[in-house]
Amino acid sequence: MSELGLPSGEAFAVGRDAAGLEALLARLAPLAPGLVALEATSGFETVVAASLPVAVVNPAQIRAFARALGQRAKTDPIDAAVIARFAAATRPEARPLPDAATQRLADLVARRRQIIAMMVAERQRQTRFAERRLQKSIARLLEALQRELSEVEAEIDRDVRGSPAWREAEDLLASVAGIGPTIARTLIAEMPELGSLDRRQIAALAGLAPWTRQSGQWRGRSHIGGGRASVRAALHMGAVTASRHNPTLKAFRDRLIAAGKPKMVALVAVARKLIVLANALIRDNKSYAPA
């Protein structure tokens, strides 16, 4: 069962099945709500978004909001009320959810990351175990994981290169030194909003927009956070490459460091430049032309 909360304080529950979803849509549609906020883990978002303006919110943000309210109890009605209050306070933007093909690509890209993480963990264990039998066990598992990785990468390649729109987007993104095929495909799969948002919105969506801590006369350092962690991690790796091989972005990084910025801050700024640049390339349908 899932609880639904409304600004009026009304709550009701529906089952997590086809009948429950039909009941949910039948009850909400006549109200013509301006926004329906759902946690990303709810499982309802794909169906509900077809008929209602849905904003999928980050569960971590909801938990932080609940703590800020002093709400420690956790029940379905309380959770629903907290999500409703969060939506009323922050007004998250309703966005269309990825279509089936984009969701499949996102799942494949995520699976690729998972397999690589498992391979890295096994290789780390390989350096710690001396016994031959354990070494053989790890070698067998690594061989199996490599086969899985090759199959997943082949599927990703078939999907991207088999779609004229994705193929064109990948070619546009890969025209930037610092954005290789893996990063380009991560952006295509997990940032379908590319080209439709402004520079500040796209940086925030990737978790690369700086926010500042300030209280009275005290001002803390700016930090980044939130957004899509997998996209941010991919762009961080791209920023490392761009800082070495993209003359324009290398010069940008060097200027920041010469001005006294820490190297990591400069690297984050390069990553932010990359996502803003990628957004502009898709929006304008133009390959990268260094200034």
List keywords for this structure.
291 residues, 12 helices, two-stranded parallel sheet, two-stranded antiparallel sheet, mainly alpha
Mean pLDDT: 83
Q: What is the rounded Rg?
A: 22 Å
* Extended strand count: 6
Give the helix/strand class.
Answer: mainly alpha
Short overview:
The protein has 291 residues and is mainly alpha-helical.
Descriptive overview:
The protein is mainly α. Helix content is 60%, strand content 9%. The chain contains twelve helices and six strands. It has helices at 18-28, 45-48, 59-68, 76-90, 100-126, 132-161, 164-173, 181-190, 199-205, 229-245, 247-258, 263-284; strands spanning 2-5, 11-14, 36-39, 54-57, 211-215, 218-223. Strands 1-2 form a two-stranded antiparallel ribbon. Strands 3-4 form a two-stranded parallel ribbon. Strands 5-6 form a two-stranded antiparallel sheet. Strand 5 and strand 6 (218-223) form a beta hairpin. Helix 5 (100-126) packs across helix 8 and helix 10 (229-245) packs across helix 12 (263-284). It is globular. The termini are far apart.
